[in-house]
Specification:
single chain
């Protein structure tokens, strides 16, 4: 169950970032601070992104109680890899070879950390 919660925490961070990116396209950033705040609060996608972050934070607190801090910190770095996949599949972003190599190093590091 605790591993499911850890996966949920990482997944919520990815979902939240994705929703906030999508929602940010609808906010007028030239309207001053008050206008931006109204734009945030009136966008269901942005509110959903904030809610996903909140849920992820609750799961994260559970994970901090259930695992060592060093363990959850390293496992949470998997979200970088998931965000690259979201960037490609949803936002059609181009990922350079250097970024792929960096992603590979992250995964190698997570693997060795979990095995150590």
């Amino acid at each position: 169950m605790k591993y499911f919660m850890l996966l949920g925490s990482v997944s919520m961070a990815v979902v939240a970032s994705t929703l906030l990116k999508i929602g940010s396209r609808t906010v007028n950033f030239d309207s001053g601070l008050w206008g931006i705040m109204i734009g945030y609060l009136s966008s269901p996608v942005i509110v959903g992104g904030f809610a996903a972050y909140a849920l992820g934070a609750l799961l994260w607190v559970y994970c901090l109680a259930a695992f060592d801090l060093s363990y959850v910190s390293f496992v949470s770095s998997i979200q970088y890899v998931l965000l690259i996949l979201v960037s490609i599949l949803i936002f059609n972003e181009q990922i350079s070879m250097m970024k792929w190599i960096g992603c590979g190093f992250i995964m190698i590091g997570v693997f060795f950390w979990l095995k150590g």
